[in-house]
Every structure is written in structure tokens, then in C-alpha cells.
Design goal:
The complex is a heterotrimer of chains A (102), B (168) and C (466).
Chain A lengths: L4 H21 L3 H25 L3 H33 L13
Helix pairs in contact in A: 1-2, 2-3
Chain B lengths: L1 H19 L3 H21 L3 H25 L11 H29 L13 H8 L2 H20 L13
Helix pairs in contact in B: 1-2, 2-3
Chain C lengths: L5 H17 L4 H29 L9 H24 L7 H20 L3 H19 L5 H14 L1 H17 L4 H5 L5 H18 L8 H7 L2 H27 L6 H23 L4 H21 L3 H32 L15 H15 L5 H15 L3 H25 L16 H19 L1 H9 L4
The chains are: A mainly alpha (102), B mainly alpha (168), C mainly alpha (466).
Amino acid sequence: MIYNFPIDWFFISILFFIGAYCMVVSKNIIKLLIGFEIISKSALIAVITAGLATNNINLAQNIIIVMILVEAVVIASGLALVVKYYRLNQSIDITKIINLKG
Amino acid sequence: MTLYLLIYFIIIMGAVVAVISKKLINSAIMLALLSIGVSILLFAYNAPWAAVFELSVCAGLITVLFVSAVSLVKHDEENIKENRVKYVLLPLLLIGFIISASIIVPEYFSKLQIFSTYNTQKEEPIGKLIWLYRGVDIIGQLTLLASSVFVIKHIFFKRKEADNGGKI
Amino acid sequence: MVTDFLSYSLIPLCSALAIPFISRKSRRITEILANVTLLSGLINVGYIILHYIIKMDYSSFTFDAFTLLMIFTIYLVGLAVVFFSTYYEVENDTNSNSYYSLILISVSAMCSLVMSRDFFTLYIFMEAISVCSFALITSSNSKNSIEASIKYFFLTFPASVLIIFGISILMLNYGSFDFDTIKFTNINFLTVIALSMIIIGFLIKSGIAPFHFWTPDVYQGSYSPISAYLAGIVTKIGGIYAIIKISQILYNSGATYKISALLLFTGMLSVLIGAFGAMVQKDFKRMLAYSSISQMGYIILATATFSPLGIFAAVFHLVNHATFKTVLFLNSACVEKNTGTTNMEELKGLEKKMPYTSWTSVIALLSTAGVPPLSGFWSKVLIIIALWQSGNKYYAVIALIASILTLAYFMIMQKKVFFGKLSEKLTEVKEAKFQLLIPVITISIIIILSGIFFNRVYFYLEKIIM
């Protein structure tokens, strides 16, 4: 099997960069969630490469299965929160969240 | 090797288009493409179980969730004054990042690979691993699922006085 | 995972799942079930601990003392909050089903978290706790609470990605991520990177100084009993606990000075930012939030010494902080309910109208500031001694000065809110209901007793570091 650990981490860093950029620049809350999803994907690839490098792929698979569940739960509840916020404020702009301050 | 590069190309393209596309619905579909790419990658890396879960949950369920949420909040999509320049800038920045990363990252991680301890023992079958050795995770998953059910119920609960305004 | 205490996490989970089925119509049954579940657990675990503390005979003690103490704290704060919220708002709260279920699920998740013996289990239950708590923040259904919840979501969930990266590096390094594997194997450069990533992730979750942007907003905006729940136990078990655990794993291995420097710096920063931030706040709950940041900084400073005494002090300060911060936040909830505001400029002279609330606040704040013989005094003294002994003398001096600052800002708060002349608007205010005072007074008694009988508590805490 052809497998190249440094190349994997090269692509992981690129994916992480794209997700982080999305989370920094966008104003739309759903766009932020999409950025979070991209970052999570990069973490997922990181786990599988660690499993490959140590010849322990089943442990990595186990972790990934649980991680996917965690991701689904987090995204589902995050979207529920966004919809609720939209119903109350008629907006999904993150820069308008400024009511609370000291 | 070409196969892997192709898969990675799909993943990166999916991510970039998901970020820069104007319509949220396109972003959600591109996210599904990214998930499919990751799933093929997992399959190629000899992790079929994880690949199946990735395909069904991330490419299936999460995309459906995103699309339904987008259609629920669609009204506001045009009202947000996004600065498009930031998104157009992303491919340029990305090229810069790729060039600088290609100098540093592979070299650095090939050094790190020396540290990795190669597991010499025979690998446990996946079913045994999930149910016996990491049975704790099952309790964790149960807790998470239960919490997600109650979270959705709690957030979307309709009260008699639907909105009590600016109450702290 | 330590399976001895599994029932403490499974029973709340089962009763949380049972709540929607058995209490369709009546709200009262839900409340009774939630209270009884937590009360029976508290009596059970309290009996085990008190049995040894009173007898002072540890010859038959075979439990994991740290886990047991954490379970006791979780149940204590959980029961206080659940009991408080049953009487807090009687009308307009018809979604009690999911509210109490979520609290019970997060109690269950916290108990499972403190039993875990590897980093990935820690991660799963931490996520479960965060998901529960950001739904709980929205309980009051107001705009502010949704806003606080969104802030909590977006400023803390990126932390979980960092933790996963740390776990994958640990996997690369050891082939596993058990605490024992790391404890009994050599520590190299890669371990330090991985553990630093995990530590930063958990610091974000606990709202410590460089990552404290969400803490005051969330505590101010959320439903009042939930502020007490978050500040009292969730940020500690979901964040600080993992750092204490890492400190406990690493304390007899040599190469910890880099992690130690990171933790010392963040600890000092949050002690100072918390203390100075608390002085300038106008909102009662916001001030308590900054005070919480400051006290968490003390715990971080104590863990950063990587010495047995430091871990001892950190655990004791964690328990103390859980008790006195719960008292303060529950009192702020009483004040908010009876006067309708938490702005400190509008409140004055409440001592005459709300004497019990006022005096329990005084006990809690004196304990926070470290006045003998209350329990907070002993933990702060131990933290300063631990810092001095491990050679971080400047940090010890800063910790000492900041504890005087703590006394100062609490005196300012007490003078503004409770003492002085009663303002005219507040002449109609009454003391909080008797039931709302029960948890507060009970925890105040615990604070006083654990301070006076510190010699007995000491022998129990000694078991943690052995």
C-alpha cells in the first residue's frame, strides 16, 4: 500500500487553513458552521493517518466512528440554535450579536 | 500515488468552493462532495467501517440538515452585506499558503514520523475492539444521543408567551 | 474507566430518559424524580466520604479518592441547582421535562468524565457536557440567552478540534492514549506538543484568561440557575479537571517545565485579568463571572507546579470554588428574581430586606478572598506554599497580592448591593422564599465546617496524591 505520512499532513494543514479562514472572515452563521465542519474533517484525516503510521487502524476506525457521531450531534444542535436565533431576530448575521457587553 | 493526489484534489476543491460560493445551498452540496472525498480516502486507507459511517452520516445526514436549515433561514441570505473581496482572496491566499507549506510541512512531519511507535502486536478485530475494549465509548454515544434529543426538544419548545423580549 | 462508580452515571441517565414517559401531565412528578435521583446519589456518595472523614481511619479505604470527591461535588452542585430551579420559577416554565432531563444527562456525563482513564473518553463526555449546557443556557427563551448560547457555541467548539489533533499526535507517539501509557513511558518532544494542544483545548472550554471572551457574556445572559450550574461545576469538570489529571499523570517525570511555563503564564494572566476586570463591572453576574475567571487562575497556578502539594491544593480549591461560586450565583439569581435587575448601581441596602441572602453571600465571599477559618483560606495558603516551594516565587507573590484584590472587589460589591442605605425603589422587596434559601444555607454550612475541621479533610485529600 502506498502511504505517505508527510503528504497527508500537508493536505491536512491546507484543509485546516481553509476552514479557519472561513470561520474568521464570514458573517453568516451557517457559513461559520461550514467552516467548523471543514476543520473537523481535517482532524478526522489526522486520526486515520496516526492509525496508519502505528499499524493500529482499527483503533483509529473506532475513534472516527465516535467522532462522526459527535460531529453530527454538534452540527444538528448548532443548526437548531441558528434557526431559533433567526426566528427571534430575523437575522443570521454574526456581527449583529452585540447585545451583551459590560 | 496519483489516486491519492486525485482524492485530495477533490477534497480541497470541495472545501474551497464550499467557502467561496455565494449561495448557501451550493456550499452545503459542496460540503457533501468533500465528505464523499474523505470517505473514498478512508476506504483507500483500508478503513471501510469508518468510510461507511462517513458516507452515510456526514455526506447524507449532515447535508440534509444543512439544506433544511438553509431553506428555513433563506429569507435573510441576501440581506447580509458580505465583503466578497475576502472570498475572492481565498484562492490567492491558499496558493501562497500551499507554496510556503510545501517547503516546511512535509520535511517537518517526516522528522516527526521517526517518533511513531509501530504497533507490533496483532491487531484486534474491529467488532471486538468496539464492544469489549472500548465499551466506554458506547455509554458516551448513548449519552450524546440522549442529550441531542433533549437539546432539540429544549430549543424548539413553544411557550405560551412566545417571546419575552429583552428580559435578561 | 473506573467501573466501581458506574451506577453514579447510569442512574441519572436512566431517570433522564424516563422523565418524558412518566410525567406527561404533571410537572411535579418530573421535579420529584430529578430531586430524588440526585439526592439519593448525594447521600450515597456523601456517606462513603463522611464515614472516613469522621472516623479518620483509612485502613479499609480502597476507592479512588479523587474520583469520589469529584462525584460528591458534582452531585452537591447539581442537587443545589435542581432544587433551586424547582422553586425558582413556577409559572411560564412548561418545558420542565427537557430542562431537568438535560441537567440529569449532564450530571451523568460529568460523572462518566471523572471516571475516564483515557483522553478520548474525556473528549466524548466533554462534548456531551458542552452540548447539554449550550441548550440549557437558552432556557429563559429570551434574546439575550440565545445570543449567549451562540457565543458559547462558536467560541468553544473549535477547542474540540485542537483536542482531537492532540489525541492523534499522542496516538502517533504511543499507539494509544491511556493515562497509564503516558505515565509509565518516556516523555519526548512530541508528547509535550500533544499535551499542550490538549491543555489549550481544555483551557478554552474552561474560559481561562486568554480565551475568556465568552465567559462574562454567557454567565450574564443565561438563565440564572444555569449560570450557577455553569460557573459552579460545568467549566470545572469540563475544563480544569483534565488539566489537573494531566498534572497528576506527569508530576514525577522530569520534562514538564515547558508545559509548566505555559500554565503558569495563563494562570497568572487570568488571576490578574479576573481581579481587575471584576473591579470595573456594573452588572452583578458579570462581576461574579470575572471573579470566577480569577479563581480558576489560582487552580491553574497550582496545577502548574506539577508537585503533589500543588495537585492537592488545586483539587481542594476546585471543590471550594464549586461551593462558594454556587452560593454567590444562586444568591444573584434570588436578587434578580426579587428586584428585577442585576445592575449594581440600582441595587443598594438589600441587607435589611434580604438578610439571609446577604449573610450567606458574605460567608461565600470571605471564603473566596481567603479569610480564616473558612475553607477558601486553607486552599489559597496551600497554593501559595506550593508555588513558593516549586521555585516560582514571583508567582507566589502575585497570587498573594491578587487575593487581597479579591477581598477588595468583593467588599466593593457587598457595599454596593447589600450594605448601605436602602434605595427608594426597593422598599417593596421581600426575602427570597424559604425553599430557595435551603441549598444556599446548606452549602454555606459546608464551607464553614470544611474550614473548621480542615485537619480531618486534610487526611482525606492526602489520599488523592498517594
